[in-house]
Amino acid sequence: MAHDVTIIGSGPAGVSAAWPLVRAGLKVLMLDQGRKADVPRSLQGTFRTILQNREDQQWREFLGDDFAGVGDERHTTPKMKVPQFRYVQRGFEDVYSLSANGLRPTGSLAAGGLSNMWGAGAFCYNDDDLSAFPVNVGDLMPSYRAVAERIGISGVLEDDIAPFLGDVPLQDPLPLCENAQRLLERYNQRRHVVNKLEFVMGRTRNAVITKDQPDRQACALDNMCLWGCSRGAIYSAAQELESLSQLPNFTFQRGAFVQRIVPQADHSYHIECKDVDDDASTGFIVKSERICLAAGTIGSTILAMDALNILDAPMPILSHPAMAFAFVLPGRIGRPEADKAFALGQLAYRLGEPLTPEHHAFGILFSAEGLLASELATYMPLSRPAAAKTIKALLPAMILANCYVPGIYSNSSIKISRKSVDRRAVLQGGVSHLFEARFNDIKKTLARAMWKMGAYMIPGGAKLAELGSDGHYAGSIPMTKEDRPLTSTPEGEIRGLPNIHTVDGAALTQLSGKHPTFTIMANADRISHRMARRLREI
Ligand SMILES: Cc1cc2nc3c(=O)[nH]c(=O)nc-3n(C[C@H](O)[C@H](O)[C@H](O)COP(=O)(O)OP(=O)(O)OC[C@H]3O[C@@H](n4cnc5c(N)ncnc54)[C@H](O)[C@@H]3O)c2cc1C
User: Fold this and answer.
1) Is 295 within 8 Å of 8 (Cβ atoms)?
2) Which residue puts its alpha carbon closest to atom 30 of ligand 1?
3) Is the pTM of this model over 0.70?
4) CA 361 – ligand 1 centroid, Å
5) Ligand 1 pocket, 503 CB below 6 A?
6) Cβ contact 237:15 at 8 Å
7) Does residue 118 line the site of ligand 1, with CB under 6 A?
8) Of all atoms in ligand 1, which is nearest to the CA of residue 296?
9) Is 499 exposed, middle or buried (0-12, 13-18, 19+ CB in 10 A)?
């Protein structure tokens, strides 16, 4: 079959680009290394009952055969230590010959990409968040809505934070854990006091379904979210590959890691692929006239820089400076832990004026009850054994927060170089000199706001997260109106590479404080709708 469009990558961006093209009747080929999970989850039941049953071998699933689940002092999201998710990122740095200083190079070779292990927080950018973009909310809103309908997002449209998170179709919210419920009640009673600190809070939004779909079951509140949802309630792009693959004009080709895109004299491209999991693979070429780059920000940027011959020049890439905080609600210390609960985001908050995007910070509050005590020990200024004992009593009383500031606080770059045919890539991580002051300011204000709602920051309970470990990379081939090197048009078309559109995080012009994936998906949907319209007219 001759394909109209080739999509490189099957993560949230790739599948979001695929749907409008396939629905318009165009023939779509999707290339991906497409790794599958190699350690299936066998634990059944709720987190508490599993821990209480103390089956002989269950520790292997929680911690891994090599106990990697308790190791690693770096401050990353706990999902990074889950044994079942190791396949998602395995080998990514090797296949790109990628090295990194000062940040973690998060990327994937799995079918569905990083969404196999993401936290599922899904928020719209508003016009303030998009102030640097060549598109506005009006341009993105039809796509936000279409993506929300497709993937299922739970939450509410009427509370203080809701207007900041966007007006999209939502499923019923997940029930709040006891601590989040108490915080929200205190917030509603003391709103006039905490709002003076420019602190606004409400329920978060999760790409987690609360009503059954033909191919996915609603959340059963088993508190096992961290180890992957056995019911498919948490959205992953891998789920959509099955429905796309049932359509006759869509082909998903696994074992197709794209090594290079080579422009041809006839204005087409040779996409050089190889199965990097098969030592015998000698590689093959796919010829294509139109490409959507959705290999994840880092992968897409390396492929684009290579095709454009941008060598030995560090180019900007946005990473998301982030923090993590631990709080305790004293009245809940020593209380029994809940058996049935949801273990991802509970509440969302904004700090700072919304009209000054460079100033605002955004974060999610989580229950601690779906975590192993060893995970929380890093927050305690105690030895690990002492911390683990203390945490047992504190766990039911704890609430954890992450916090992101916009990408303007990031100061990271990516560079590629070539020695004969070998290509190397280097990521250099850094933050703006203003970030440390911003972190201290956020820590102080958040601690005060939470204190006014009856929650106390644990001593030593404020940490800087390891840069890049959240996978929020963006802005390396930004959509701009003006013609600059390594930028794309408002339609994501890379300048210098006609008919190659970047549809993943690389195309975002700026990172706001909000998690970016929902905006990446909406932008991919928007770009491919336009592409489909144009191709239908030809
Ligand atoms: C632990 C964790 C938690 C997160 N939580 C959230 C959250 O709560 N909210 C949020 O908004 N974001 C979150 N993220 C970020 C989110 O996962 C990413 O923004 C999102 O997955 C990006 O989608 P993508 O399709 O652009 O890239 P990816 O998900 O990285 O997918 C890229 C795809 O391209 C394929 N690929 C790569 N290179 C090639 C190549 N050369 N040839 C062929 N195929 C290739 C890969 O196999 C993969 O399928 C989280 C990330 C992590 C790691």
Assistant:
1) yes
2) 296
3) yes
4) 23
5) no
6) yes
7) yes
8) 27
9) middle
